[in-house]
Specification:
Blueprint lengths: L1 E7 L3 H12 L6 E8 L5 H11 L3 E6 L5 H11 L4 E4 L5 E2 L3 H11 L3 E12 L4 E5 L10 H4 L10 E3 H6 L11 H10 L3 E14 L10 H14 L1 H4 L4 H22 L4 H11 L3 H9 L4 H11 L4
Parallel strand pairs: 1-2, 1-4, 2-3, 6-9
Antiparallel strand pairs: 4-8, 5-9, 6-7, 6-8
Helix pairs in contact: 8-10, 10-11, 11-12
Length: 303
């Protein structure tokens, strides 16, 4: 069985899209655990109605809010399945996502985590593009450089791996998925479905974690201290590239958030490596964010 864990906070207007995408999966041996993190809207009423329609849906709520990491960890603890699939309340799965991932598990007994490609959707800018992971197998070293697995909603992982590695770090406000993938990749091999199996929605005109660059900067500081021993084993070039990827992620958040810090991050990145990603970001940073997204969609640039 797969336990689908959906954390939510005051997003009743978006939540049903995510829940329905889980209900309509072609892989039917699932339970859907919706965990309300201190919601004060009509989430509880909505989910109780849905639970009566489909007995696979269960609902957990608590107050006060403890954050998405707390909700995910609680969902994992309550999960009955051998596998756990995470789905954010504003994302949407394609109907055969779970089926394709379980096929990878069946064909590769050494794999403990399977991720998929995603369709990145910028709702306000009306731009979308696919981002497909291209690394699999033993990723113990590659994951230390950057998040080569992707967003939480793309992953199915064996439940025991999440529990044995400590679950999501409740001290982190950003990069929670990357932090967990670092630990899990030290314990298991990774499989990939090389196609987009979900819509990953971005709302640049509304409040998301992505709207605060400082949260990402603080998260990198936390992660770098937490895994100092592992990071120190990287060679000089790997450490340079790790810093490059950090600078590019922070630059992208800064451009999106218009907080004036992007130039500093991009210049740091360019001192490490002159890439088209960094040069184009520097060129387009003062234009509307849609312009940079449009270029990325054409050039297949992924930051």
């Amino acid at each position: 069985m797969i336990s689908v864990v959906i954390p939510t906070h005051n997003r009743a207007d978006l939540l049903m899209r995510a829940v329905q995408s889980a209900v309509l999966q072609t892989y039917k041996d699932i339970e859907i655990i919706v965990v309300s993190d201190g919601s004060t809207d009509n989430t509880a009423e909505l989910m109780r109605v849905q639970g009566k329609k489909d007995t696979r849906i269960s609902f957990i709520e608590y107050h006060p809010a403890g954050g998405g990491n707390t909700a995910r960890n609680l969902g994992v603890e309550c999960a009955s399945g051998e596998y756990v699939a995470f789905l954010d309340d504003d994302d949407e799965w394609m109907p055969n996502k779970l089926e394709k991932q379980m096929k990878v598990f069946a064909e590769n007994p050494d794999i403990g985590l399977v991720c998929t490609g995603i369709t990145v959707v910028y709702v306000d800018e009306k731009i979308r593009y696919n981002s497909i992971p291209n690394l699999q197998g033993d990723l113990r070293r590659q994951i230390l450089l950057k998040n080569v697995i992707g967003t939480t909603s793309s992953v199915i992982v064996k439940k025991n791996l999440v529990l044995d590695t400590g679950g999501f770090d409740t001290k982190l406000i950003a990069l929670q998925d990357y932090d967990l993938w670092i630990r899990i990749c030290q314990r298991t091999k990774v499989g990939v479905v090389n196609e987009a199996c979900l819509n990953y929605y971005n709302y640049t005109k509304s409040k998301q974690v992505s709207s605060d660059t400082i949260k990402y900067s603080d998260a990198f500081i936390h992660i770098n201290k937490k895994y100092y021993d592992w990071f120190s084993e990287l060679d000089l070039e790997e450490q340079r590239m790790k810093r490059y990827y950090e600078c590019m992620l922070l630059a992208n958040k800064s451009i999106r958030n218009k907080d004036g810090k992007a130039s500093t991050y991009l210049k740091q990145a360019l001192r490490i490596k002159r890439t088209k990603e960094a040069l184009l970001s520097l060129l387009f940073m003062h234009l509307p964010y849609r312009c940079l997204l449009w270029v990325r969609s054409l050039w297949k640039i992924r930051i």
